[in-house]
Design a protein that fits this description.
Layout: E1 4-6, E2 11-13, E3 36-39, E4 57-60, E5 70-77, E6 80-88, E7 93-103, E8 106-107, E9 111-114, H1 115-118, E10 132-138, E11 145-151, E12 155-156, E13 163-175, E14 178-181, E15 184-194
Length: 195
């Protein structure tokens, strides 16, 4: 047993506890799944070399599959162990490199992004331009380029019904000892995040 003597000047611990009891027998008995597997395709059609237990998890990394980035859990349904979809990993980032033609500091046409390429539309209600943070960099090793991005209102593309995020860029380059509006073709790297 611990004995403590307290005075106004100091604290002294004279001894430690004789024993400590930790009780961990809560919940149902049995083995628990502890594996997180990664594979290509639906786990119900993939051969697994590792012994599996109920509640193991599996991530589908087959990028061409409709269930890409789906997380499955091994569950017992009606006496049969099978992988069941639980959730999908969703990224909130989109990156792309575009070739853009500029005239007098602005693109000739708006630069457009299909919203379904950025985030699954089932996860958003009514997307507006303020929901997106757009950054870009120019590939021009010879001259520094300063720019600002103008994010325009989300529109619906006629014919397809796709939601489109149009943007424009105002850009100037520093050459010699002066700034001037850019003209010509530039490769522009875009990073779009959802905020």
């Amino acid at each position: 047993m611990t004995e403590i003597f307290v005075s106004t000047d100091d604290v002294k611990v004279i001894g430690g506890t004789a024993n400590v009891n930790v009780e961990v027998d809560f919940g149902p008995q049995g083995d628990r799944g502890n594996l997180f597997l990664v594979g290509k395709g639906d786990p119900n059609t993939v051969t697994h070399s590792t012994p599996l237990q109920l509640l193991d998890l599996y991530l589908n990394i087959q990028s061409t599959d409709s269930d890409y980035l789906m997380i499955y859990q091994l569950q017992n349904l009606n006496g049969t162990n099978q992988w069941v979809e639980t959730d999908k990993i969703i990224t909130d980032k989109f990156s792309v490199i575009r070739t853009v033609v500029f005239a007098e500091g602005s693109p000739i046409d708006d630069i457009t992004f299909k919203l379904s390429n950025i985030i699954p539309l089932s996860l958003v209600g009514n997307p507006v331009a303020e929901n997106f943070n757009i950054q870009c960099t120019f590939s021009d090793p010879q001259n520094p380029i300063a720019h600002s991005i103008v994010i325009k209102a989300v529109t619906i593309e006629q014919g397809t019904g796709d939601l489109i995020l149009p943007i424009s860029i105002n850009a100037v380059k520093f050459s010699g000892n002066a700034w001037s509006a850019i003209s010509g073709t530039y490769k522009v790297h875009f990073l779009i995040t959802v905020v």
